[in-house]
Write a structure and sequence with these properties.
seven-stranded antiparallel β-sheet; 16 strands; disordered C terminus
Length: about 300
């Protein structure tokens, strides 16, 4: 019996070219968060959820709770189309909208700026000036002599870019950091699209052991055979229905870290890049160079 949590997808137009998935009636949690299009596909899946706590702090009455979530993002384009850029944002909040109980994004991985598949290009720039002497006078004067030329070689490095960061995204800009954002951009020299697969991780600090939710917002720049289009969800319309995670409740197809191998009472000391096996992969057309992989 297949125990994977695959929920049927419901395409609901928000704007031209934009679709989102919806929870079924009475459903609070779903593994597949976003699925868009046929020739263009963007999916966000939860692959792992681990609950625990942070190490006790000096003079503290107790430990903050912790949750580590691992996501897999896929951007697949066929039919000569490609994703040029994509930004995926996860925004976390208390399930009952109690701001004081919102989870805080403690760490994300990958974090910072990364470069993949660097290429260098050079271009020679020339300009000149006539250094000759004039013969004759008046409007019929002419110049003879050499044209002096100088040149300069201009170098530029291109690369596939990946950035990961934590941000505060809340009205009034108050409270703790509540958002994780990843942005992928193609190598403009090669125009071969962004990586097709990215695994990311978010470690949350939770002030209370209560249900929380998050929103996913995806914005992409897509080449429709030479025509650029930007596909995105409108935040005011809740691009993705909230996915509620109940601490203490397990999900059969969602893995968790082994408490025998990891100290889940000190999750702030975890190397989340290693335990989440964070990586990104670019799949080339079979007719070209097969498959390339990279890790962040």
């Amino acid at each position: 019996m297949d125990e994977r949590m695959i929920v049927d997808l419901y395409e609901q137009p928000i704007e031209e070219g934009e679709f989102r998935t919806k929870n079924e009636d009475g459903q609070q949690f779903r593994k597949r968060l976003i699925d868009r299009g046929e020739q263009l596909s963007t999916t966000v899946d939860i692959v792992s959820i681990t609950h625990g706590s942070f190490a006790p702090e000096e003079f503290s009455d107790g430990n903050d709770f912790a949750t580590l979530i691992v996501y897999e993002l896929r951007f697949v384009a066929t039919g000569g189309r490609r994703f040029k850029k994509a930004t995926v944002k996860f925004k976390f909040e208390d399930a009952q909208k109690k701001t004081a109980s919102d989870p805080v994004v403690h760490a994300v991985s990958p974090e910072g700026k990364w470069a993949l598949n660097k290429t260098d290009t050079s271009r020679t720039i020339k300009w000149g000036a006539n250094a000759g002497a004039s013969i004759g006078s008046g409007p019929f004067a002419a110049e003879i002599g050499l044209v002096w030329e100088t040149e300069r070689i201009k170098n530029r490095t291109y690369y596939t870019s990946l950035t990961g960061e934590k941000k505060l995204d809340r009205a009034g800009w108050v409270g703790g950091v509540n958002t994780a954002v990843w942005t992928l951009g193609e190598n403009e020299d090669k125009s071969d699209g962004i990586p097709t697969f990215l695994r990311t991780a978010v470690l949350l600090r939770r002030p209370e052991n209560r249900p929380f939710s998050f929103m996913v917002h995806v914005k992409t720049d897509v080449d429709f055979v030479g025509t650029m289009k930007t596909l995105f969800g409108m935040e005011k319309k809740d691009p993705i229905d909230p996915v509620v995670i109940h601490p203490g409740r397990g999900y059969r197809t969602i893995t968790s870290l082994d408490p025998q191998a990891h100290d889940l009472t000190r999750m702030d000391e975890l190397n989340i890049k290693t335990v989440a096996e964070v990586m990104f992969v670019t799949i080339q057309e079979e007719a070209e160079h097969g498959t390339r992989t990279g890790s962040a």
